[in-house]
């Protein structure tokens, strides 16, 4: 297949690289790259953002000095064929560059939305597992429910637990912190 230039100056007819992401339009979508496949998702909704904000603040308050907590759109970019933007990530300060994280974070967190659920629970989870990310948390803001995956000695994720509503998860890794899914939602003021 011959290469051609399509909309927004994106070269078509070959697999995507992280350099193609730099040409994506600023149109409110999040563009990610997973093993040369482009993932485009619309802007997240109210509950999604509320969970990201509250969990980010909770993690940041408990985070030791040698680690950092960062929200999307900060990217995990281990190669030119992958750039993922977990909703939240925890990384060693020494591993971070000004522009992205070139290695595995110690924790990746995804908050589900209708447009991301399939990737978050399957392809992204599988990639983080292969990359060796020790912890992967998935939050469903509609339940609310937190599912915690931890990398085993065999290199495979195992489900550490599912915590719904007022059930507390007392994390030990990457640092001690208590997460209560229902507290991440808060209450929504009526319009």
UniProtKB/TrEMBL annotation:
It holds the Pfam family Uma2. The keyword Hydrolase applies. GO terms for molecular function: endonuclease activity. Keywords: Endonuclease, Hydrolase, Nuclease. The keyword Manganese does not apply. InterPro entries: Nuclease_put_TT1808, Restrct_endonuc-II-like, Uma2. Residues 20-176 form the Putative restriction endonuclease domain. This is Uma2 family endonuclease. The lineage of its organism: Bacteria, Bacillati, Actinomycetota, Actinomycetes, Pseudonocardiales.
